[in-house]
Amino acid sequence: MSRTDLLKGYVIHQRPMSDSRKILDIFTAQAGRVTGVVRISKKSPALILFQPYLFSWLGKQEFKTFTGYESEAIPFALKAEQLYCGFYLNELLQRLLPALDESTELFAAYEMALAILANQQPPEPHLRRFELVLLRHLGYEYSFIHEGFNPTPLQANGLYHFNPQQGFVPITTQSFDSPNKSGLEYSGADILAYHRGESSPAVLHLLKRVCRHAIAARLGREPLRSRELFRRD
Amino acid sequence: MLSPLIDQLIAALRVLPGVGPKSAQRMALHLLERNRAGGEHLAKSLLSACAQVKRCDLCRTLTEQPRCYICASEKRDGTLLCVVENPMDVVAVEQSGTFRGKYFVLLGRLSPMDGIGPGELGLDLLMERLRAEPIGELIVATNPTMEGEATAFYIAERAKQLNVTVSRIAHGVPIGGELEFIDGGTLAHALACRREI
Ligand SMILES: [Zn+2]
């Protein structure tokens, strides 16, 4: 990032620092997650989530000073449960994305997911896509055609565990050293169906479990708070 | 700089919003030099307010009574409940002079990353009131931010299950505003929520 560039980004989190300053975490393509302070006044327009802004900024350290911002386009008009999904995406970025790390592909996946949410299309495939791109960005890319760390092809009639470090490992071989803590089994046929690009309910369900497992391993103990909103009581 | 007690007072005054070191100094010296009685009255008022003001049992706004004067009033329409984020919002709606119902104050809005979920907003208490009281309409007046909208949706979903009519305050072009100065998001919303005349 050079100092003269305007950064296009979305606010993923904001918290007050004093009555005239806020700390912002923004998500950008050029620099991933960028944290800094911005001066606010009663007159300055509120920063809205899911709205692209152009930020001007200063600072050589990791913590920046945002010297100004203007909206680049109108916000993605998320409504109802899509808002919860949007909060979920933001929380994932806030928790897992390292600071100041170019994220072009992830940024595109984020904008795509927001667009799908705003259009009220079924979000599941795009949320999963976002999660998989995020995991790849963090260095975890899973094969849906070979066993993890192993060139052995997955078998349609095989049963597999998912290991968040490696990927799919067959249940039939010795799994003593990596006991399946999640208690989940995956059918080779479903895994291969995803690889072929299918998006049947079974495939989406498989993908949801895999992503949840892989993300949980990255998150550690602190659960995602945005998941509470989806709970039915 | 002046004396430990004066410095302490100046530092204490800076808890007030918008009060920087210069204004804190001016306030402290003003009280000490020109208005000691006023200063003592301020100190006593602060002490008793901080000791006694709590939250209304019914609506969670600030009051030293078990129930605030609005909840206790017989003149207010108990079938109409307005949900707001903060006690300041109660004051704002009251000043509009058009609302005759009662309130429920969330003391925030859903914001998972700040650890504010349904539990923190007292939504159990709100749902309990909807079950127990003859409330016919719930007006959700949370702020028009994404968090405020999510809060409104969360409440609406649950209130509808209890057969309560839920409405949302309108937002859009302010009275006296000029279209060319209004941001695109507000205008898009105003257009989407247009009505026939
Ligand atoms: Zn009350």
CATH topology of the largest domain in chain B: Dna Topoisomerase Vi A Subunit, Chain: A, domain 2
Radius of gyration of chain A: 20 Å
CATH architecture of the largest domain in chain B: 3-Layer(aba) Sandwich
* N to C succession of SSEs of chain A: EEEEEHHHEEEHH
* CATH T-level topology of the domain at 3-71 in chain A: OB fold (Dihydrolipoamide Acetyltransferase, E2P)
Number of helices of chain B: 8
User: What top-tier CATH class of the largest domain in chain B fits best?
Assistant: Alpha Beta
Summarize the main sheet of chain A: 5 strands, mixed, barrel
Radius of gyration of chain B: 21 Å
Shape of chain A: elongated
What is the distance, rounded to the nearest whole angstrom, between the alpha carbons of the first and last residues of chain A? 46 Å
CATH superfamily descriptor of the domain at 3-71 in chain A? Nucleic acid-binding proteins
User: In percent, how much strand structure appears in the residues of chain A?
Assistant: 15-25%
Q: Could you give the order of the helices and strands of chain B?
A: HHHEEHEHEHEHEH
For this structure, what is the CATH class of the domain at 3-71 in chain A?
Mainly Beta
